[in-house]
Amino acid sequence: MTAPLTRPAPLTWLYVPGDRPEVMAKALSCGAEAVIVDLEDAVAPDRKEYARAATAEFLSSPHETPVHVRIADEHDLPSLVGLPGLSGLRVPKVGHASDIHRVASRAPGVALYALLESALAVEHAHAIAAAHPAVHGIALGEADLRADLGVRDDAGLDWSRGRVVVAARAAGLAPPAQSVYPDVRDLDGLAASCRHGRTLGLVGRAAIHPRQLPVIERAYLPTAREIVEAEEIIEAAADAGAHALPDGRFVDAAIVAAARRTLSLAARH
C-alpha cells in the first residue's frame, strides 16, 4: 500500500549563490516559494569559506520565505545547523540511504532533500526517499545524471524522472520538483519543458533566475478549466460510489482524489 502524502512542497524554488549576500537578500522578494542558497556548484573553490560565513550570517535570523541550503559537502553542516533562518538542506550526490542517515545524524531536526545525480542514485531512489523521517523530498540533479548516463537528448532522462516520481509517491513524499532549465533567456522552451514535466508527474521546478518563476508557476498551476472540472467531480462525488458525469466522464475514488489534489494546489495560490 502506498504511503499517504503528508508534506506539501513549494511550487517554485530559486537558486542563489552563497557568496553573494546582496543577491540572497533580493531573492526573498522575487516571488519564489522557497529560496535555495547554493554552496556547491555556484561557488568557486576559493570562495567556499566566504560563502559559508555569508550564508550563516544570512540565516542568523528567520525569513518569511523559507530558505534552504544546498551544501557542497558535510563540512558545511557545523556552520548551518541550528540557525533560525534555515528551513532545510539539499544534499547533493546522494547515492545510498546511508548518505542520508549520515547527514541526518549531523543535522538533527533539519528537513533534508536528497539530490539524485547518478545512475546508482536512481536505482536506489525509493530506499533514499524512505531512508529517514528527516527526508522531506527527493529530486534529480539532471546535469550530473545526464553526464553519468551519456544521455544526449533530453527525453533520455524521462525514465529517470518517472522513477523518482514513483519513489517519492511510494515513500509518502510530495512529488519531486523538476530540475533547473539552464537557458534563462529561453522562456518558451522553459514553458514547454515544464508542460512535459507535468505530464510525468513532477510538480514545480527549481529556477536559476527570477524571470523563470512566473513561467514555472503558470505551467504547474491548474488551469481554469482543470479547476472547473475538478469542482464538477467533487460535486458529483457527494454521493458514495462510482458515477458518470453528464459528458460521459467516469468518476470513482481515484478520480476524486486527483480532483482534490488539483483544488488543493489551486487554493495555495
What does this structure look like?
With 269 residues, this protein is of the alpha/beta class. Helices cover 42% and strands 14% of the residues. It is built from twelve helices and nine strands. The strands form two sheets. A seven-stranded parallel sheet has the order 6-5-4-3-2-1-7. A two-stranded antiparallel sheet has the order 8-9. Helix 4 (97-106) links the parallel strand 4 (88-91) and strand 5. The model has no long low-confidence stretch (mean pLDDT 92).
Could you list some keywords that capture this structure?
269 residues, alpha/beta, seven-stranded parallel beta sheet, two-stranded antiparallel ribbon, 9 strands, 14% strand
Strand percent estimate: 5-15%
Q: What level of helicity do the residues show?
A: 40-55%
Summing up helix and strand content along with how strands pair, one would put the structural category as alpha/beta
- Alpha-carbon distance between the two ends: 31 Å
Total number of helical segments?
12
Radius of gyration: 19 Å
Tally of strands: 9
Largest sheet: 7 strands, parallel
- Strand order, biggest sheet? 6-5-4-3-2-1-7
- Summarize model confidence as the mean pLDDT: 92
Uncertain regions: pLDDT < 50 for 5+ in a row? none
Shape: globular
What is the H/E string? EHEHEHEHEHHEHHHEHHEEH
Strand and helix map with partners:
Elements: E1 12-17, H1 21-27, E2 34-38, H2 48-58, E3 67-70, H3 77-80, E4 88-91, H4 97-106, E5 112-116, H5 119-123, H6 125-129, E6 135-140, H7 142-149, H8 158-170, H9 187-199, E7 205-207, H10 213-220, H11 224-236, E8 243-244, E9 250-251, H12 253-267
Parallel strand pairs: 1-2, 1-7, 2-3, 3-4, 4-5, 5-6
Antiparallel strand pairs: 8-9
Helix pairs in contact: 9-10, 11-12
